[in-house]
Design brief:
The chain contains nine helices and seven strands, in the order βααβαααβαββααβαβ. By secondary structure, the chain is α/β, with parallel strands linked by helices. The protein has a single domain, classed as Acetylglutamate kinase-like (Carbamate kinase). A seven-stranded mixed beta sheet has the order 3-2-1-4-6-7-5.
Length: 221
């Protein structure tokens, strides 16, 4: 059975208020693919960044732990929105146990690791499960050659190799709550273990991707 891991950006779940429109569309899409084993790892998004900012004078670990709690709160929301059981796993072993009994598991970050976001958690889950595909759903269409928020002529990169992607990511300085298409730890994991990864935006593109149709996004392979 095909195994899919989805890193679901907190900015899609709650960009300032709960995004019901997105969640309804996401739910409808996920329901079409219950023939797969799916693990969804939720990010902390704006909730995490607001709390981290409020503790800007504290050390990095404290701020990271606050962000982890936010990912778990979002996981509880998404899990129950998808009519999944309320239990949100706290470890990789818990994820594996639940996945043996059901085809859908939702979790947040699985414990503290230095310089790691929920993207890194998702990549680690994908590695451990030997997943067929890791999908990073975020609020941009994919990886661009420069910041699309600052440059109107930024071009979407439809495909990139693991090593070239890792070079780009490693130029970015880590900070708790950072917002980029994939974090440094995740980039390192997918490069080392050759995990095919897709970056995309929106449940429509997710549907096309899982149906192996042409979609807008970035493929890392």
């Amino acid at each position: 059975m095909k195994k899919i891991v989805i890193s679901l950006g907190g900015s899609l779940i709650n960009p300032g208020k709960i995004n019901y429109k997105f969640l309804r569309g996401f739910k409808a899409t996920i329901r079409k693919f219950f023939r797969y084993k799916i693990v969804i790892v939720t990010g902390g998004g704006k909730i995490a960044r607001d709390y981290i900012e409020a503790l800007s004078d504290k050390n990095e670990k404290i701020r990271s732990l606050i962000g982890i709690k936010a990912t778990k709160l979002n996981a509880m929301l998404v899990s129950n929105f998808l009519d999944n059981e309320i239990v949100v796993p706290d470890s990789l072993n818990d994820v594996k146990k639940l996945l043996k009994r059901r085809n859908l598991v939702v979790c947040g970050a699985l414990g503290y690791r230095d310089k790691m976001t929920s993207d890194g958690t998702a990549a680690d889950v994908a590695r451990s499960l030997k997943a067929d595909l890791l999908i990073n759903m975020t609020n941009v269409k994919g990886l661009y050659d420069k910041d699309p928020g600052k440059f109107k002529n930024a071009k979407l990169i439809s495909e990139i190799g693991f090593s070239n992607f890792l070079k780009i990511v490693n130029k970015i300085k880590y900070k708790p709550g950072q917002h980029f298409v994939l974090d440094q730890v995740a980039a390192g994991i997918i490069a080392k273990h050759k995990i095919k990864t897709v970056i995309l935006k929106g449940h429509d593109e997710l549907d096309r991707c899982l149906n192996q149709k042409k979609f807008i996004g970035t493929v890392i392979c």
